[in-house]
Amino acid sequence: MVVVLPTRGYNLPPFIELVSVVHHLASVRFVILAVPRTGSNLLCTLLNSHLEILCHHEIFNPQGIFFALEHRDGTLDLGSMEQRDSDPLRFLDRVWDCSLGYPCVGFKFTRGQNPIVLDHVLTDSSITKILLRRQNRIRTFVSELLAEQTGVWEAYADDDLASEPRQVHVSIDNLRSHVVNNDRFYADIYTALASSGQDYSELVYEKLLLPDEQRRALNFLGFCEEQPKLKAASVRQNSRTLREVIANFSELDALLEGGEYHAELHDTVN
Description:
This protein is of the alpha/beta class and 270 residues long. It has one domain (3-239): Rossmann fold, CATH 3.40.50. The protein is 36% helix and 12% strand. The protein is built from 10 helices and 7 strands. Strands 4-5-3-6-7 form a 5-stranded parallel beta sheet, with helices on both faces. The protein is globular.
């Protein structure tokens, strides 16, 4: 298999290639744990913009193996989906081994993906854990509804976005069920890490573009010196207010009034 050497931060001509995978274990291995639509693609591209970090996306997504953006041209081949799913831990070892010279290598893992991998990363204390959450639970749910409707789960250019603004109908029962499922995912992680005494860093989607939040993430990964601001490669998929996106907003507003979700429905931070 052919693997193109990384060029971020290195004065290498783009045509230089290796005839085999570079097997060099990174000194830091990390995983981003999140539920869908909480900004994990944004965080992946931010971390991946650092000269010493290789951050893949959902390498255990049931629909495909999503490497870091610059390695989606087919030059990085660690095995087929069938090979990955038949022996996921062996595939994970290939990801760690193929550091491409970066001292810090990671990927993101979201709710509903391979349980064998999740159990493994939670019990392996040598893997650094980053938990990503989105404070507004309604926006998380609405974003998932929009992605299901449009089929757009990742966007890295304006052309990737849906051509016309969409609206979704929000069922309060489905919203509550969605929140319960997400809370259970995080609760299981907290319990597993607490029982084994492992540290983790928890980041918030709404703060990812702030220098202090980025500095916290880098410090946790072992980069303590002053770092340049990280750069995002993803495009925001929806900048409209919930009033504009939710077709039954008035009905939902009345149903949620006085409850725990009401303030989130009117939150203007997206």
